[in-house]
Automatic annotation (TrEMBL):
Domain Exocyst complex component Sec10-like alpha-helical bundle: 25-151
A single GO BP: exocytosis
Protein name: Exocyst complex component Sec10-like alpha-helical bundle domain-containing protein
Lineage: Eukaryota, Viridiplantae, Streptophyta, Embryophyta, Tracheophyta
GO CC list: exocyst
Pfam families noted in UniProt: Sec10_HB
Superkingdom of the source species: Eukaryota
Organism: Aegilops tauschii subsp. strangulata (Goatgrass)
UniProt xrefs under PANTHER family: EXOCYST COMPLEX COMPONENT 5, SEC10
Length: 153
């Protein structure tokens, strides 16, 4: 019912959905509710009965609000993950990653993490890593040399 109110009105949510200490539980429940509501909206489609149309409209509002809430929650978790990463707080990073895995199987978290790592975006670092892996032989390095370079890296 909390998500079935005015579209975009997520200011007055219960502690389950607003308490940062319950974010894992909130993520799980919000994703399940969104999935059920989307499935129900898809199943009913467009109907001619006024009561069914109003119920369907209420579900559409709930789906939109749940999606907005999930997006906001995912962004908060990504931000928390970034902060923990900068502070090298591995337990917090792991907790955030576990929760983020509920959103699109963690794709956004992985993309975000890779996009912020110099080893994936800084050409100089990538060239240094290539040199470490391939050694002096460059592209002609054999598989055992490459394996040794990868283990060093």
């Amino acid at each position: 019912m909390e998500f079935n109110s005015t579209p975009g009105d997520l200011m007055e949510l219960s502690p389950l959905f607003s308490d940062d200490s319950r974010v894992a539980e909130a993520a799980s429940i919000a994703q399940k509710l969104r999935s059920f509501a989307e499935e129900d909206v898809g199943r009913h489609g467009v109907t001619s009965a006024v009561g069914s149309a109003n119920a369907s409209r209420g579900l559409e509002v709930a789906v939109a609000n749940l999606q907005e809430y999930c997006n906001e929650l995912e962004n908060r978790l990504l931000s928390r993950f970034d902060t923990a990463s900068q502070r090298r707080e591995l337990s917090t990073m792991a907790e955030c990653a576990k929760i983020l895995s509920q959103f699109n199987r963690g794709t956004s978290a992985m993309q975000h993490y890779v996009a912020t790592r110099p080893m994936f975006i800084d050409v100089e670092i990538m060239n240094t890593d290539i040199q470490v892996v391939l050694g002096d032989d460059g592209p002609q390095a054999d598989s055992s040399s490459i394996a040794e370079g990868l283990s060093i890296l």
